[in-house]
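Morning run. Coffee first, then this:
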Amino acid sequence: MIFKVVKKRQLFSYLLIFVFMPIITFYVGKFMDKFFLLPSFPPVPWNLFAGIGVFYLGLGLGIKSTRSLYQFGGGLPWGEAVNEVKTKRMVKDGVYQYVRNPMVLGYSILPMGMGLIFRSLGMAISITPLVLAVNIAIVKLIEEPDLLERFGTDYINYKKATPFLIPDIRRIFKEFVHITLTKKTQIQYASLSLAGLFFLSQILVKESNTFFTIKHQSSLFLGSFSIICLIGLIAAVSPRLLKFKPHRVETSNFRGHHPDCEKYQSHILIFKNKAYCAGCSGLAIGTILSLSFTLVYRVLGIGNLEVELILWSGAVLVTLGLIQHFIDLGISYVHFILNVSLVLGVSLMIITIDYLGLGIFVRVYALAMTLFWVSSRIRISQEEHFDICGSCTLECNIGFKANS
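And here it is:
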């Protein structure tokens, strides 16, 4: 497990990428928008299509790069700075078969994704070139000389055969077509879910659907959402109480309700020597956080937070939760976090709807989409289980069957 070899001082780079840089990008970008009078671009809902696509591409490349370095090279990304976690073998597999520096490409385009999501040209163009330039300088001045010294001819041949930063588009397109043909059901559910999300986001941005309000609609709306959360929490923790299909107990063949198989390691979360479903655990924790956020909002409001930040943060989190299975990240903690993000993102959008005072039709639509998003996530997960077991060449009687 990657996290077992990561020390606190080595986590600073990830805190910089995922905590400090997004904050810096947001405020620097907003300043540049105002200072240079930059227009809001792209228009809704294309900002979600473009922004989330770029952001998730960058995030996926970064995480898969880390996984490839650890799995195939026995090291971690910051090996040039910390000798004890240097890769022990030349890594040419995983995402590194397409491009030599996928991590640089991935993390450098994250600010661009943020800028597109928030419709801020300042965010998209101010931080991205700077991050890319710094990363390229580090690669050329530090990483490449170190790799040449350690791996010699092997690295020279790899360098000649593999692009520096931009992969072969034709090869990527062929693999995309293959994935599309093998994941039809998952794509259908994800597409419908994302279409509903984009439509809802457009309503919220226009803030024009305030007609047909009813008395106490805020209390009814937030109360209904809380009831959905409570039912979802029970279903995630103890589905037998709702007469859903029960989780399997941990046996020699099953860990939680997943087969005891290497292909399901990213679905199983180990906590205090006990196996839990990473997806269900994430949904449960996300539900608890959502209930807490809703309660705090009901009592204190949103304070000095910008409603635009709450809206687009929620949209991004929901999207990440819905499309998590389309990129095999292979890390149970990431699987857990993305399921937390799905429910947490829904709560942020619910809070935005209530704060804007939108009408009852929008509120009912949002609650209906909440149920559909969670149902889609469950259905996509089931199809993923069927695909994993269906593509396995081993003979066993414990796997998931498509007709089960």
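The chain has two domains: 2-170, 183-390. Good start to the day.
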